[in-house]
Every structure is written in C-alpha cells, then in structure tokens.
Amino acid sequence: MSITRKWVVRTVRHMVGVAMVAFLPVACGGSGSRVAWPVEDVTVAAVTPGESQVGAYLAGHHALQMHDLKTASAYYRRALQIDPTNINLLKRTYTLLAAEGDIGGSIAVVQKLQALKVKDPVATLILTVKAAQNEDYAEVERLMAAQPRHGLNSFVGPLMMAWAQAGQGQVDAALRTVASLKKSDPLLTLYNFHSGMINDLAGRPRAAAVHYAATVTAEGGLSLRTLEVIGAFYLRIGQQEKTQALYERYLKEHPGTVLLDGLIQGLNDGATPARPIADARNGLAETLFGAANTVREENAADASLLLGRLALAMQADFPLAQILVGDLLQAQARSEEANAAYQAIGRNSVVYYSVQLRVAENLYKAGTLHKAIAALESLAQQWPDRPEAFILLGDIWRNEKRFVEATLAYEKALARIQVVEDRHWNLFYSRGIAYEQAQRWTAAEKDFLKALDLAPNHPLVLNYLGYSWLERRHNIHQAKNMIQQAVKQRPEDGFIVDSLGWALYLTGDYPGAVQELERAVELEPNDPTINEHLGDAYWHVSRRKEARFQWQRALSLNPEGPDLRTILHRKLERGLVDTPDIPNVPDT
Predict the structure, then answer these.
(1) Where do the domains of the chain lie?
(2) Given 3-state DSSP classes, what are the helix, strand and coil percentages for the chain, each rounded to the nearest 5?
(3) What is the C-alpha to C-alpha distance for residues 166 and 277, in angstroms, rounded to an integer?
(4) What is the pLDDT of residues 309-352, one digit of tens each?
(5) What was the pLDDT predicted at 52?
(6) CATH dotted code for 457-588
(7) 551-587 burial string, b = 16+ CB within 10 Å, else e?
(8) Quick one: how far is CA 442 from the chain centroid?
(9) 564, 2 in Cβ contact below 8 A?
(10) How far is 18 from 391, CA to CA, in rounded Å?
(11) The pLDDT of residue 57
(12) Rounded distance, CA 526 to CA 163, Å?
C-alpha cells in the first residue's frame, strides 16, 4: 500500500500566502464608529418599461453581478435614455459610475436627480467633491450642513463641514464643529485626530500636539495613516524621539511589516517630511478615506469602494486610498484594475515597495507567471537588503510545484535576514516543505525543527513534521503525539484530523483510525487522500463494502497523479490482500 501523500496540493491550501507579505491596517486613525451606510435601497424592481429598457436593465444587472461595473453602468445609462426620470435607476447609475471612478459622469447623473428635487445623502456627498475640486468650500459647507446627522453622516457630516470651514480660514469655527464628536465615546479618537490636523494646518503646533498625543494614547493599535501624519508632525517640530517611539511601537504591533520602511529611512536620513495634510481638500479626502475604511470593516465593500474613489477624486496622490481601492478591486477578482490602482502609486511613496509585492502577486494570480517572476526579480535587485521578494518568489515556485527553484528563492531570502526572529518560523516551514518535496529530507527535517524552535507547538509544523516522520516510519509515537497536539489546536481542520487518523492506522489502532478518519471526511469530504485513508481503515475492520465505496469515492474526486489512480484501481480490484498490516510499529 502506498501512503505517499499529496502534500503539495494539500499544504498549498494551508500555506499559499502565509509567507507572503500581509498588508496591515492602513485606516484613518480612530474611525472607530461601527455605523451603517445610510443609503436607500436603489433597486429598480418598480420599473415597468418597454422591452428595450428591460433588456438594458437586465444586462446591466448581470454585469453588476459579475463585478463588471463599467459595463453595468453603460447599460444603466442606456436604460436611462428611455426613462430618464426613473429615480431608482438614476441612483443605481450614479453610484456605479462613482464606484467605477467616473466622478464626472456620476455628478452629471446626480444633477438630474437634483432637477427632480430628490434628496439623497450620497448624491450630496458626490456634489461636495465637485465643489471641493473648485475650492468652493462655502458650497461644501452648505451642502453638508443640510445633511441629517445619523448613520455614517454622524461623523462624516461634521468633519466635512469642519474642513470646509478651515478651507475658508474659519479655524475656530472648524474646531467647534469637530468638537461635536466628543459627545460620542467611539468618535473621541477621531475628534482628536482631526482636531490635531486642523490645528497643525493652521500653524498651531501646541494645540495640535495635545490632540495628537491623545490620539496615540487612545485604546487600539496605531494605523499606518495615524503614524504617517503624527510621525511627520513630530519630525517637523524637532521631536524625532517621539517619532522613533511611534515607529518602534508600530513595528512591535506589526512585526515584519515592510510598510514602514520608507518612513524609517526618512527618519534615519534626517529628512523633514512634508505636511501630509497640506490644505483643506486633503482634509476632506482624509475624511472620506476614514469613512471608506469604516464601512469596509462592516463588510460593505461597494460603499467602501465608492468612498475610496471619492477620496481619490479629492486627492489623486493618496497612496493609502489607492491601496484601499486596489484591495477592494482585487477582492472582486479584478486583478488588472487592482494593479492599475497600485501602479499609480509613485516610487517616492513610503509604501511603494510593499505595493509592488502586491502587484507581483496579482500578476501571478492573473495567470502571468513570467511577468510575476520578472517583477519579483527586479524588486529583489532594487532592494538588495529586503527578503520579501524572494519569499514571495519561493511561494510562487512552490505553488507551481517547482521545488528546486522554491528552495533557491527561500535560501536567498534567508541570506538577507541578519537576525532570525520568532516571526521567521514560516519561512523555515515553507523552505522545509520545498526541501521535502525536492527529496532533500535531511535539509527539510532541519528546517521543520527550526520552525518548531521559533514557534513551539505550531499546529501546521507539528502536523507536517509528524506526518513526514510517519511516512518514514521514524519517531512514530512522537509523531502521533505531535499530531494530537495539532488536532487539539485545530479540531475542525480536516487535514490535520486525517493525519491523526493515519497515525492511529500506522500504529495498528484501526478502530481509532476509523473514528478520526470518518470525522476528517466530514470536515473535508472532497479530498481524495482522506477518502482513500478511510477506505484503508474500513478494510482493516472488516467493513469491505464501505472500504470499496471510499476508494471509488476517492477515484471520482480526480486525484492528482497517475500513481494514486493506479493504486486506487488496484485496491478496488484486490482489496488490501497484498498489503501487509503495519501494527505496533516501533520508533526507529
């Protein structure tokens, strides 16, 4: 009986992206408030037009379901040509256009709603973009003053008004408007952050410092945006040590992040950064960016995308908003458009390197392996001290089952790490998998043990090393104990439960193996290897019909590789009569 496991396929489910660079929270400081987006239902169920409009609407609806916003908005516009006063259709169209980034087209549709005397809070927000682009801050204030203060507008409204007042030179009025947020504890950090920025812009560093200090001492972790704004402030007033402390705190909260590299480099170079909020329009963009992050936390991706686009319409060069929009597009499987958003970020941005890693990852997901490899090799050359490009390259080669190339990439990554820390466990684990699949077991075992040393009792490492020992009939009882520890931590992980079942099988506890393998099949019913294992266990407890059923089931799941299919066919024909039992295997 072959017990060689298809670990390539199965570990990819656990590990693809584990060693890839994670994008850490970049939200506006202290958006905090968990409130719903106050948008009316914009369905067009009430539309009863002629056939051509129905066709255009249905085509638009289908495109929308496929996340093709550009096509959807084009069809809705066509439907509007037939019924130009359909309010629900107008609402659907302007929101789609804005979410697609066509702010000018969206404004044109909103103006049609205005002509129909329709009040709509999101439409009003879009009109503020036009006013801000014209630096007509009095119009922004007028528009926002009329908005109800509930839902998202409980903080977006006051902040937009405050920045509009600041844009008119009414600093004290702006601060009084922001102060209305103090009435709500969840909005207190937001109050301090924006009060700090308004005072900073107005040339009041002492007042700004008070509010910024309250922002960074509030409960909750620092966001990158908070760090960027407040860190720059301290550098500009000559308090580098406070910036250094903020950076160290962020690195402690987000170990291994590459997002801070540019800021740290600027600090080390003694550079004085520009003020991130240089005018009132930047403050308005900051407000919309914070709102976009808030609704994203509420899983309202469409509203978040719309708000992110509005923020970029206010301030085109806003890297963290560009990342937000790119991430939302990527979540909709719109990799090409996501990369366009990422690529718009300039090389001088502090997040450029980390964003280029995301671009390379998207190129791979889009099926352009050669472009992804070229991009990563270029990044590795441009940033000779950074290991992340080689880590991602190793992940990609491993996913492609090109394990020799994967080991080489991981080796290059480790060569760039001066001090190995606990967080590097996954790099040793990933390289260990590549070594094991490249038939270099001695090197693989060494890496797995190192990973365990860095991350004791990590379930993935315990499971992989334990199972690998089982395959080699080495340290059988220790391997079983390790897998049992992994199962305790992840009892709902079908693959790890399967490992325990197989360990019991190899030590001759067939009834126990059946119990665990049945549970593993319940958790992962479509994995051919788990079904095969259950069939083997059934055979040894004289449940022969059920054994053949599981083997047939495994075969129907299209197992990878001709060897496993051949083995399953042989088992269906002969059972396990030519396969010796393996009870009571001693440790070796």
Answers:
(1) 457-588
(2) 70, 0, 30
(3) 12
(4) 999 999 999 999 999 999 999 988 888 899 999 999 998 888 89
(5) 60
(6) 1.25.40.10
(7) bebbbebebeeeebeebbebbbeeebeebeeeeeeee
(8) 35
(9) yes
(10) 10
(11) 67
(12) 55
